[in-house]
Amino acid sequence: MAADPASGLRVENLAVARGGLAVLEGVSFALAPGEALVLRGPNGIGKTTLLRTLAGLQPALAGEVSVPPESIAYAAHSDGIKATLSVAENLRFWAAVHGTRDISEPLSQMNLETLAERPANSLSAGQKRRLGLARLLVTGRPIWMLDEPTVSLDTDSVALFARVIADHLGQGGSALMATHIDLGLVSSRDLDLTPYKARAPEAGGISGAFDEVLS
Amino acid sequence: MSIWEYANPVKFMRLSGRVLPYVIALAAICLLSGMVWGYFFVPNAENFGGSVKVIYVHVPAAMMAINIWGMMLVTSLIWLIRRHHVSALAARAAAPIGAVMTLIALITGAVWGEPMWGTWWEWDPRLTSFLILFLFYLGYIALWAAVEDPDTAADLTGVLCLVGAVFAVLSRYAANFWNQGLHQGATLSLDKQKHIADVYWFPLLLCIAGFVFFFVALVLIRTRTEIRLRRLGALQQRERMA
Amino acid sequence: MIALLIRDLRLAVRAGGGFGLGLAFFLIVVTLVPFGVGPQGDILARIAPGILWLGALLACLLSLDRIFALDYEDGSLDLLVSAPIPLEGVVVMKALAHWLTTGLPLVIAAPVFGLLLHLPGDAQGWLVLSLLLGTPALSVLGTFGAALTVGLKRGGLLLSLLVLPFYVPTLIFGAELVSRGAQGMATQIPLLMLAGITAASVALIPFAAAAAIRVNLR
């Protein structure tokens, strides 16, 4: 039930919570196809929480998201790669889970063809990240949510990563990223989350279950 | 006015604070009068001897042991369906009391069983299922303690309580099938069975009422403590976020 | 979802001794029992059903904490939750993979272990049947326990405390079925109860387990 990618992702007045208390509120943005959005803000502001909420891993406190989680592919620092399986086996598994797409194209796109039969634990950090990106391609989902995708990557791998993102955007996909590195993407915008920091209940923010003063 | 209003922590604190002294007083009156009556003004039964008087602790504790899990089941359901925090905290508050009641029932049972059956412990279905119930309580308490985030812990223990209730009942019947025991049938039921004489019956009723009030008082106190802890946690979290 | 089953089985095999570990543990239990109670055949024969069932239960318990823990650590569980397959189905496949790697080998090897413990010949069939009917329930209930403890750092001991009480009915009816079969008594009640517990667990527990996983990933 992939949503029409042409309409893009629209988020309105979203509030997300961590540990029962709101961390971000009133988050509104639009992400058009072919566009990338980089989440900015200090550590702990709620970038990961926002991405996980959009990916459907945790419920939102309030707000509207225009696309269902089914059209969002989520990836965190760990890519769900099984060390004892070969590159092709890893990919084939996720392809089957997402409804069997051909894995040869993602393999060649990520330059992994020669490594296809190697077990994943023999890959370098950069090669592993390429495998993770190939998994994103395999999902066939238009909107990518990437949490710190460049952690533990050397400069060459970062460049490859930026190229893959650019390709994905060029094919009408979109990406929402939490990263500190400038990837040099043409169609990339920054979204500073600092203004959306949840206010205290006294200041009109969403109150948690135990924010009322006990008599 | 609906009863759900008291699911609000502040309203609950206000109401429970007002009710608590009366509940404590009722518990004290019932327990004292029931125990004194039962221990000093009731003749020893000819074929039971003095040891029969342990029923004034044993029977109420055993009843509470089972019913507290039932109460936890109801409050867990309320939490899972309606997301009232007080309900989840009440279930958390009740669990250690239930575990202690189970333990009391087992120990007083052993004390009674020794003169009656000549053994401290027998793998009788009733005894065995109380032991299993005790294990369920331990698991429930341990899960609450192990999970850091309180709402996550409330959800997980809620699910555990539901599934646990089914399996506790199932274990009871399995144990019944496994070994036909020597424990007598239930001593009383709502329609007051024949084989317990009135002289024992009335003080026993008082003791049971006393245990119920005692339990309610303990749960209220412990739930109030839990609410204050959560409030404290919320304050600290707000401080960190500011 | 079949792909998930195949992947889990493949992982179990590659991890080294996925199938063998439970069996080896079972063998050790069976070897140790005569040292504890003496080598007399009649005593061993009488306690054999209980020992074999206890061994199966412990062998099953041994590998429970790995059902979800590895997938949780490497992020696969997040991805599986957001994948277009129902999480309940994921749980069933995980339980099935666990059963195929620990329960089924025990079922197949049980007659050998029964022989070691002097289990009478006509009880062998009952032993295999009871394990075949009962061990799936052990795997499914264990999956539920693993789902409850998936996010915890030291969940292993807690997992045993949570899961073992759930195993009581299965253990009672399973062992009872074998000993009744061995003595030539009526076996209908334990047989039906065992089958009933397994059927109900397989049908209902995955929903509870999936709910627990969703809560834990939140």
TrEMBL record, chain A:
<keyword id="KW-0813">Transport</keyword>
<dbReference type="InterPro" id="IPR005895">
    <property type="entry name" value="ABC_transptr_haem_export_CcmA"/>
</dbReference>
<keyword id="KW-0472">Membrane</keyword>
<keyword id="KW-0547">Nucleotide-binding</keyword>
<dbReference type="GO" id="GO:0016887">
    <property type="term" value="F:ATP hydrolysis activity"/>
</dbReference>
<keyword id="KW-0067">ATP-binding</keyword>
<protein>
    <submittedName>
        <fullName>Cytochrome C biogenesis protein CcmA</fullName>
    </submittedName>
</protein>
<dbReference type="GO" id="GO:0022857">
    <property type="term" value="F:transmembrane transporter activity"/>
</dbReference>
<feature type="domain" description="ABC transporter">
    <location>
        <begin position="9"/>
        <end position="215"/>
    </location>
</feature>
<dbReference type="Pfam" id="PF00005">
    <property type="entry name" value="ABC_tran"/>
</dbReference>
<dbReference type="InterPro" id="IPR017871">
    <property type="entry name" value="ABC_transporter-like_CS"/>
</dbReference>
<dbReference type="InterPro" id="IPR003439">
    <property type="entry name" value="ABC_transporter-like_ATP-bd"/>
</dbReference>
<dbReference type="GO" id="GO:0017004">
    <property type="term" value="P:cytochrome complex assembly"/>
</dbReference>
<keyword id="KW-0201">Cytochrome c-type biogenesis</keyword>
<dbReference type="InterPro" id="IPR003593">
    <property type="entry name" value="AAA+_ATPase"/>
</dbReference>
UniProtKB/TrEMBL annotation, chain B:
<keyword id="KW-0813">Transport</keyword>
<keyword id="KW-0812">Transmembrane</keyword>
<keyword id="KW-0201">Cytochrome c-type biogenesis</keyword>
<keyword id="KW-1133">Transmembrane helix</keyword>
<dbReference type="GO" id="GO:0017004">
    <property type="term" value="P:cytochrome complex assembly"/>
</dbReference>
<dbReference type="GO" id="GO:0005886">
    <property type="term" value="C:plasma membrane"/>
</dbReference>
<feature type="domain" description="Cytochrome c assembly protein">
    <location>
        <begin position="4"/>
        <end position="183"/>
    </location>
</feature>
<keyword id="KW-0472">Membrane</keyword>
<protein>
    <recommendedName>
        <fullName>Heme exporter protein C</fullName>
    </recommendedName>
</protein>
<keyword id="KW-1003">Cell membrane</keyword>
<feature type="transmembrane region" description="Helical">
    <location>
        <begin position="199"/>
        <end position="221"/>
    </location>
</feature>
<comment type="function">
    <text>Required for the export of heme to the periplasm for the biogenesis of c-type cytochromes.</text>
</comment>
<dbReference type="InterPro" id="IPR045062">
    <property type="entry name" value="Cyt_c_biogenesis_CcsA/CcmC"/>
</dbReference>
<keyword id="KW-0997">Cell inner membrane</keyword>
<feature type="transmembrane region" description="Helical">
    <location>
        <begin position="159"/>
        <end position="179"/>
    </location>
</feature>
From TrEMBL, chain C:
<protein>
    <recommendedName>
        <fullName>Heme exporter protein B</fullName>
    </recommendedName>
</protein>
<keyword id="KW-0997">Cell inner membrane</keyword>
<dbReference type="InterPro" id="IPR026031">
    <property type="entry name" value="Cyt_c_CcmB_bac"/>
</dbReference>
<keyword id="KW-0813">Transport</keyword>
<feature type="transmembrane region" description="Helical">
    <location>
        <begin position="43"/>
        <end position="64"/>
    </location>
</feature>
<keyword id="KW-0201">Cytochrome c-type biogenesis</keyword>
<keyword id="KW-0812">Transmembrane</keyword>
<keyword id="KW-1133">Transmembrane helix</keyword>
<dbReference type="Pfam" id="PF03379">
    <property type="entry name" value="CcmB"/>
</dbReference>
<comment type="function">
    <text>Required for the export of heme to the periplasm for the biogenesis of c-type cytochromes.</text>
</comment>
<keyword id="KW-1003">Cell membrane</keyword>
<dbReference type="InterPro" id="IPR003544">
    <property type="entry name" value="Cyt_c_biogenesis_CcmB"/>
</dbReference>
<comment type="similarity">
    <text>Belongs to the CcmB/CycW/HelB family.</text>
</comment>
<dbReference type="GO" id="GO:1903607">
    <property type="term" value="P:cytochrome c biosynthetic process"/>
</dbReference>
<feature type="transmembrane region" description="Helical">
    <location>
        <begin position="99"/>
        <end position="119"/>
    </location>
</feature>
